[in-house]
Specification:
25% of the residues lie in helices and 34% in strands. β2, α2 and β3 form a beta-alpha-beta unit. The longest helix is centred in the middle third of the chain and has 17 residues.
Length: 189
């Protein structure tokens, strides 16, 4: 029994340390069991460029498209070639700025006495940052109906940004994030 509890605690701690927060939602009325092919959703003519310069990268776009294509292939979906796609796929990457909370300078004074006649006291002064947090990336993958445009499935992942990695590490990171999102796609009937 102790071994089982220890293993459960270990698995929970590893899951908590992964650093990727994943959310998924989907249309429960749609039958995903017949979904076999996909295509990239055509870009809207008035589509705005990403608001953050780090998200506006053809290198990153290629990495994410490759990761999404590979993840969908691993789930039995293939790109539509000569027939219309069963679903359209699209993604958005948002870069959330870092949160920084600062502490105002504070001075504290404390005094006291003991029952043995002694006195004590102290002064504390605090300055500087209380906490600082890295910027975060929010990757959203949408799967929609080609004819109606209706959103059928949405998955998202939020994790700390890492702009210091090599191209290989960035590709592995993109793949890890995409696989975390698409892990439960298509949903079970």
């Amino acid at each position: 029994m102790r071994a089982l509890l220890a293993m459960t605690a270990l698995l929970l701690s590893l899951t908590a340390c992964s650093g990727i927060e994943v959310d998924r939602d989907y249309d429960t009325a749609f039958d995903f069991s017949n979904t076999r092919s996909w295509a990239w959703k055509p870009a809207a003519p008035d589509a705005a460029a990403p608001a953050h310069p780090l998200a506006d990268s053809t290198l990153l776009d290629e990495r994410l498209r490759t990761a999404i294509s590979q993840a969908l292939a691993g789930r039995g979906l293939h790109p539509a070639t000569n027939t219309p796609a069963d679903v359209f796929v699209d993604y958005r990457l948002l870069i959330e700025p870092p949160l920084v909370a600062t502490r105002e300078p504070r001075i504290g004074v404390g005094m006291g006495a003991s029952s043995h006649g002694g006195a004590f006291g102290g002064v504390s002064i605090r300055f500087g940052k209380d906490r600082s947090e890295l910027a975060h990336e929010l990757l959203i993958i949408d799967i929609s109906h080609p004819a109606s445009g209706k959103l059928l499935w949405r998955g998202s992942a939020r994790r700390a940004s890492d702009t210091s990695s090599s191209p290989e590490a960035a590709a592995a990171r993109s793949s890890e994030t995409v696989n975390a999102i698409l892990k439960a796609f298509p949903p079970a009937p």
